Amino acid sequence: MSDDLHEVYAIKYGHHHRRAAENYIGGDPHDIAQPLDFFVWAIVGAHGTVLVDTGFDEAMGRRRQRAIINPVGAGLKAIGIEPDTVKDVIISHLHYDHSGNYDLFPQARYHLQDDEMAYATGRCMCHAHLRLPFEADDVVAMVRKVFAGRVVFHDGDDLVHPGITLHRIGGHSKGLQCVRVNTRRGPVVLASDAAHLYAHLAEGRIFPITYNVGEVLEGYATLKRLAPSPDHIVPGHDPLVLDRYPAARSGLDGWVARLDAERGAG
Ligand SMILES: [Zn+2]
Ligand SMILES: [Zn+2]
């Protein structure tokens, strides 16, 4: 495999039951269950493992009443990745479900947008509504990493390694970024919370936790521009991801999916 082609995995660690109406500004006319899954994503290639987001741990799951199905570290080990060997962690944004487990990757440097750190440490956090998806301990842990020389700041689009690029989206959180990865089936775009569910992207609908609605909608256009087809965009919280892609290995069905494989290939 050439050095700019990578394997990509979606690793589910948690689950949360909720009604469809809770997933959209303006609610939903269908009174049905529409649960969210929680994922981290691993990019594996010539430059080692690049992790996208770090999830949350059992204690945070209890605090936020979200179920941990398998801890993040266990999911990584299931595909042969030792957390303490990970050298790069991309943080899509600093919400509690994307930036916890902050001591699990002692060797990693963390890639973050300037805007996200400014947002999570600035005046907007004086407002309860805006700070709701953030945890002070997660943000403080990131500040400590800045002082330890372990944070790489990005402003807009940037390159992490050949074949791995970052793209600032904003919208859901002020400095939210997505990740585009070159793979054997073409570029795969890890949307993270730039699109929580396939339905948000397909129908132009908005998740209730939002900093800027206009940027969310522009973000959908950006995701589509970055990907060769809608099938190359991976939403951040959709349980359908694990149905649409094959398991990474036998025994990992419903837990770890291989995103650089053709859909329905296994
Ligand atoms: Zn979020
Ligand atoms: Zn999220």
In short:
This protein is of the alpha/beta class. It has helices spanning 58-64, 72-78, 96-99, 114-120, 128-131, 136-147, 198-203, 213-226, 241-244; strands at 7-16, 36-45, 48-52, 67-68, 88-90, 109-113, 151-154, 158-161, 164-168, 177-183, 186-192, 233-235, 256-258.
Give structural notes:
- It contains 9 helices and 13 strands.
- It is of the alpha/beta class and 266 residues long.
- The strands form 2 sheets. Strands 1, 2, 3, 4, 5, 6, 7 and 13 form an 8-stranded mixed β-sheet that branches.
- 45% of the residues are buried.
- The mean pLDDT is 96.
- The structure holds zinc ion (2 copies).
- Residues 93, 95, 133, 172-173, 193 line the site of one zinc ion.
Core attributes:
266 residues; alpha/beta; 8-stranded mixed sheet; 5-stranded mixed sheet; 13 strands; 26% strand; globular; binds zinc ion
Overall body shape: globular
State mean pLDDT (0 to 100 scale). 96
Count of alpha/pi helices: 9
Beta fraction of the residues? 25-35%
How many extended strands? Answer: 13
Helix content: 10-25%
- What ligands does this structure carry? zinc ion
What structural class do helix, strand and pairing data support? alpha/beta
Reading the helices and strands in chain order gives: EEEHEHEHEHHHEEEEEHHEHE
